[in-house]
Specification:
Blueprint: E1 2-7, H1 12-17, H2 20-27, E2 32-37, E3 50-51, E4 61-62, H3 64-72, E5 82-93, H4 96-102, E6 107-112, E7 128-131, H5 141-152, E8 180-181, E9 191-194, E10 197-200, H6 210-220, E11 222-223
The structure holds S-adenosylmethionine.
Length: about 220
Amino acid sequence: MKFNILTIFPNIFNSYFSESILKKAQDKKIININIINIRDFTNDKHKTVDNPPYGGGPGMVMKIEPIYKALRSLKKKNNKKRKIILLTPAGKQFNQKIAKKYSKLDELVFICGRYEGIDARVEKLVDEKISLGPFILNGGEIAAISIIETVSRLIPNVLGNKKSLIEETFSSTLKSNKSFIEYPQYTRPEIFKINNKKYKVPKILLSGNHKKIIEWKKKKSKFK
Ligand code: SAM
């Protein structure tokens, strides 16, 4: 699967995508992350990507032309399933269900805004508007990273152990729209002291009784 990110801060991504599971997934060529600097699609010597808003108001607004040209530079093969996503707090809130839907596509394109936002006409160039949550970030880059990570781990062979996905929080949702919340997990040591109080791992998890452990895990999982 290919992820394209349109941004004016391409270096933000280097460190995060060069580590751990996402690095391995790229090395194994399961995913491909293509970072596009919107400034490369400007014509003036200052590489201007923003201007003051029409009608006045604080801050700067990102111009449509460089974004339009950057999108046009992405060649799309006819048989490929691709979605262009505008990252905006005004969009539909991202969740695990959307991640599953995206994981079936061949390509995703993210447009990361900055400053006061993006010229509203950019909406005409996109398939979906997505928000990471009901809060304001400085830019869409962290939203793009979060979505790419969430979608990537649903793609076959990205995770070392595919069982990790089965019982995971949000892995299933009831008709009532309640989501599955995974049972609590513990590892060594068996007893840990916080402010002189001992916190123990539940005995049942140390019992070796797999049937009882499964029952305990079911009991401790919730739908929220
Ligand atoms: N003035 C805008 C408003 O009031 O909605 C906020 C602009 S924000 C400072 C700059 C950029 O960050 C946005 O264009 C968007 O791309 C990104 N952004 C901010 N919050 C976001 C969120 N919750 N989800 C996705 N992207 C977000």
